[in-house]
C-alpha cells in the first residue's frame, strides 16, 4: 500500500500545483494563456495516450481468459445476467435521481447565464445528427477486430472477446489451454505496464488542470456556481445511494474497497477520463479479492453499459437546458426522455464527449433547442470530473457485488 499512497499524494500535489500555475498564468500573463494551455495540456495528452495504448489488448486478453477459464457456459450466462441486472437498475436509478433533483433544485430558473453563441457547440451538433439505431448497431458489432483495436472501440472488442472466449471454452482444455495461457501471460505483462504508466499520472493531472485554469481563470467557478453546486449535490445523493447499496452487499469491506480505489477515483476526477483508470482498476479490484475471471468479464462490460455518473448528468443537463429556455415539460414527457436516454446511451463508451452528443440528440427529439448545449460547454470539464469519478465507483461496486454474489470474493486481499 506504500506505493499506492505515494502515488495518491503525488496526484494531490500535482492537482494543487496545476491550479496555482494555471492561476498565475491567467492573472499575470493573460496574453500567454492560450499557448501555455496548449503546451502544458500535452502532459495530460501523453498520459491519456499511454493508457489508451494498452486498453484494447488488456480488455481483449483479460476478457477472453476470464470467459475461457470459466469453461462452464452456464456460469458465463449467470454472471452476465447478474451484471446486466445491476447495470440496468443502476442506470435507471441514476437517471431518476438526475431527473428528480433538477426539477426540485431548478438551476435553470435561478441561474442568469448569457445565451452563448452556438458556434461553440457546432462540432457536437454535427456529430449528433446521424445518431440512429443503425449507428448504434454499427458501433456495437465490429466489421473488423483490427479496426476496433485501432480505434479503441471497447464495446466492439467486448462483443468479439465474448464470442471468442465462449468458442475457446467449448473447444475443450486440450485445444484451448495453450492459447489461454498465452493470453494470460500477455494480460499480466500489460498489468505490469500499468504500474509504470500510473507514475506518469501526476504529470497528466498537472497538465490537464493547469490548462483549464490558465484559460478560464477562477471566475469560471463563480459564473457557473449555481449549476455546479446543484450538479455536485445531485452526484453526492447518487454516491450516497451507491455506497448504501455497496454497504448492504459488502458490509465493512466497502471501506477497504474505497481505500483500494482512491487513486483511480482521483485520477478519473483530475483527468476527466474513467477510461484512463481502467487498467489500474483491474489491478486494484483483483488485489481487493475479486475473482480475476469475474473482473475481466464484468469491468469491460461496465465501461459500456454502467456509466452511472454520465447517466445522471444526461437527465440533469437536458432538463436544465429546457429550464433555461423556459420550456415546460410534463411528467410524461420527462419519463419518456428518461427511457430514451436509457436506450440511446448504451454503447457510446469511447465516443469523445459522448454524454454531450446524447444530450444534443435528445434535446432535438423533445423540441428543446440543441444549441443550448453551448451554455454548459464552458463548465463541462468540471462536470466531467464528477461524472468520470462516479463511473469508476459504479463499476468497482458492480464488479465487487457480482463477485460476492458468485461466492468469488476472497476475504483476504491478494497481491497481483
Strand content: under 5%
Write down how many β-strands occur, each being a DSSP E stretch of 2 or more residues: 0
Distance between the termini: 12 Å
- The mean pLDDT is 80
Work out the helicity level.
over 70%
Main sheet specs: none
Shape estimate = globular
Which segments are poorly predicted (pLDDT under 50) over 5 or more consecutive residues?
Answer: 111-120
Query: Could you say which structural class the secondary elements and strand pairing correspond to?
Result: mainly alpha
The value of Rg in angstroms is 21 Å
Q: What is the N-to-C succession of helices and strands?
A: HHHHHHHHHHHHHHHHHHHH
Determine the number of helices (DSSP H or I, runs of at least 4 residues): 20
Concise account of the structure shown:
It is a multi-pass membrane protein. α2 crosses α10. About 2% of the residues have low confidence.
Task: Explain what this protein looks like in three dimensions.
The protein is an all-alpha fold. It has helices at residues 2-28, 33-70, 73-105, 107-110, 122-128, 133-140, 145-150, 154-171, 173-198, 201-216, 219-223, 225-250, 253-260, 262-271, 278-288, 292-305, 308-324, 331-344, 354-365, 373-405. Residues 111-120 have low confidence and may be disordered. It is found in: Cell membrane. It comes from Chryseobacterium pyrolae. This is Cation:dicarboxylase symporter family transporter.
Amino acid at each position: 500500500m506504500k506505493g499506492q499512497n505515494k502515488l495518491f499524494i503525488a496526484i494531490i500535489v500535482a492537482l494543487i500545483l496545476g491550479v496555482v500555475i494555471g492561476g498565475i498564468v491567467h492573472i499575470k500573463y493573460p496574453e500567454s494563456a492560450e499557448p501555455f494551455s496548449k503546451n502544458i495540456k500535452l502532459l495530460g495528452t501523453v498520459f491519456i495516450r499511454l493508457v489508451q495504448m494498452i486498453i484494447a489488448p488488456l480488455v481483449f486478453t483479460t476478457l477472453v481468459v476470464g470467459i475461457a477459464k470459466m469453461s462452464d457456459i452456464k456460469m458465463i450466462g449467470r454472471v452476465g445476467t447478474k451484471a446486466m441486472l445491476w447495470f440496468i437498475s443502476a442506470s435507471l436509478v441514476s437517471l431518476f435521481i438526475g431527473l428528480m433533483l433538477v426539477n426540485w433544485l431548478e438551476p435553470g430558473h435561478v441561474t442568469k447565464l448569457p445565451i452563448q453563441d452556438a458556434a461553440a457547440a457546432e462540432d457536437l451538433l454535427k456529430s449528433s445528427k446521424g445518431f440512429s439505431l443503425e449507428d448504434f448497431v454499427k458501433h456495437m458489432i465490429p466489421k473488423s477486430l483490427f479496426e476496433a483495436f485501432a480505434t479503441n472501440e471497447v464495446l466492439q472488442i467486448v462483443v468479439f472477446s465474448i464470442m471468442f472466449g465462449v468458442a475457446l471454452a467449448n473447444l475443450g482444455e486440450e485445444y484451448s489451454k495453450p492459447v489461454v495461457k498465452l493470453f494470460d501471460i500477455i494480460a499480466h505483462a500489460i498489468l505490469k505496464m500499468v504500474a509504470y504508466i500510473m507514475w506518469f499520472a501526476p504529470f497528466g493531472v498537472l497538465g490537464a488542470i493547469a490548462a483549464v485554469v490558465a484559460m478560464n481563470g477562477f471566475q469560471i467557478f463563480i459564473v457557473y456556481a449555481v449549476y455546479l453546486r446543484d450538479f455536485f449535490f445531485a452526484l453526492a445523493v447518487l454516491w450516497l445511494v451507491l455506497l448504501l447499496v455497496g454497504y448492504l452487499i459488502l458490509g465493512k469491506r466497502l471501506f477497504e474497497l474505497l481505500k483500494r480505489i482512491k487513486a483511480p477515483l482521483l485520477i478519473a476526477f483530475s483527468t476527466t477520463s474513467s477510461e484512463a483508470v481502467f487498467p489500474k482498476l483491474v489491478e486494484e479490484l483483483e488485489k481487493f479479492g475479486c475473482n480475476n475471471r469475474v473482473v475481466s468479464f464484468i469491468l469491460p462490460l461496465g465501461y459500456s453499459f454502467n456509466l452511472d455518473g454520465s447517466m445522471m448528468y444526461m437527465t440533469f443537463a437536458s432538463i436544465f437546458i429546457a429550464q433555461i429556455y423556459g420550456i415546460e415539460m410534463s411528467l410524461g414527457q420527462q419519463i419518456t426522455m428518461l427511457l430514451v436516454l436509457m436506450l440511446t446511451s448504451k454503447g457510446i463508451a469511447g465516443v469523445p464527449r459522448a454524454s454531450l452528443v446524447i444530450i444534443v440528440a435528445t434535446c432535438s427529439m423533445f423540441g428543446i433547442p440543441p444549441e443550448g448545449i453551448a451554455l454548459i460547454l464552458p463548465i463541462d470539464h468540471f462536470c466531467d470530473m464528477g461524472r468520470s469519478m462516479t463511473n469508476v465507483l459504479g463499476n468497482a461496486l458492480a464488479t465487487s457485488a457480482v463477485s460476492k454474489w458468485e461466492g468469488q470474493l476472497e476475504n483476504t486481499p491478494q497481491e497481483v
